[in-house]
Write a structure and sequence with these properties.
Layout (H helix, E strand, L loop, with lengths): L1 E4 L8 H12 L15 E3 L10 H5 L6 H10 L15 H13 L6 E5 L7 H18 L2 E6 L2 H7 L2 E6 L2 E6 L1 H6 L4 H6 L6 E8 L2 E4 L2 E4 L3 E2 L6 E5 L4 E4 L3 E2 L1 E7 L3 E8 L2 E8 L9 E4 L4 E5 L2 E3 L1 E2 L1
Parallel strand pairs: 1-4, 1-5, 2-3, 3-4
Antiparallel strand pairs: 5-6, 7-8, 7-11, 8-9, 10-20, 11-18, 12-17, 13-17, 14-15, 15-16, 18-19
Amino acid sequence: MTAVLGGCGLGGGSGDVTLRLVAADYGDSAANSSKKYWDGLVEEYESKHPDVKVEVSVYSWNDVDRKVKEILAMTGLADRAGKRARGLTADQKQKISLGRGLVRSDVNAILFDEPLTVIDPHMKWVLRSQLKQLHRRFGYTMVYVTHDQTEALTFANQVVVMYEGEIVQIGTPADLFARPKHTFVGYFIGSPGMNVMPVAVEGRTARIGAQTIALPGAPAAQAGPMELGIRPEFVKVGKEGMPVSVRRVEDIGRQKIVRASLEGREIAAILGEDEEVPAEPKVVFAPEGINLYASSWRVEMGA
């Protein structure tokens, strides 16, 4: 399963274009038609005629009656069979859209354009789980456009991240977290996102203001200004390291987010729920979490 992830501008407009390009690549001669389901396009805010029966809305060919009943049961709509679509909830409407793609034997791919936007958080989790089960059962190619990183990272085993109309990284959720190839990937994915700050680099040492940071290796190339990126999970708060000024601490239950200033630059760090901030706090950057960027693109570091 592949998710296409980006900012809010990715859905609806450019996201729709992305999916229709995929549809065209799969051989859909009518990929420009918003009502075609040759490739199982599941769109946001899918409207249904209130007087159409549910099983007809899913599919109306008599010779696929068995498949229709199977899909209705699989999507939890069997109890709606024979009833009018009037009064369907938002998640039921989206299940019908899904069923219209799954019921066909000639579907090459199921394309989703922000299908869970209007659904409450719990139902989103339920439907994501069902989609993954369907994928394992049928093995369809699924492409899922969303600006919700939680949806993308929990739904897909491969994520395509887009920024300003360009693909900036393709990888697993683990790759996007540990090795963001672009600073946008770093701060867009994660809550809070990656800390990114300008640094001066000399060999295996980076400098921010009066502070020096040991790098895990020397950058392969140093062309122009460079930035250091490190996720809050790799910023260790304690009594040793670089002095910081703590602005506030956000207690979110299982962990705390420390908002601080390092040499005039805002940074975030993650603490466990039982950890405390020292009276004179300092931070250390874990070497395995350090990334370097030149012109927003990740630079490899050698030995």
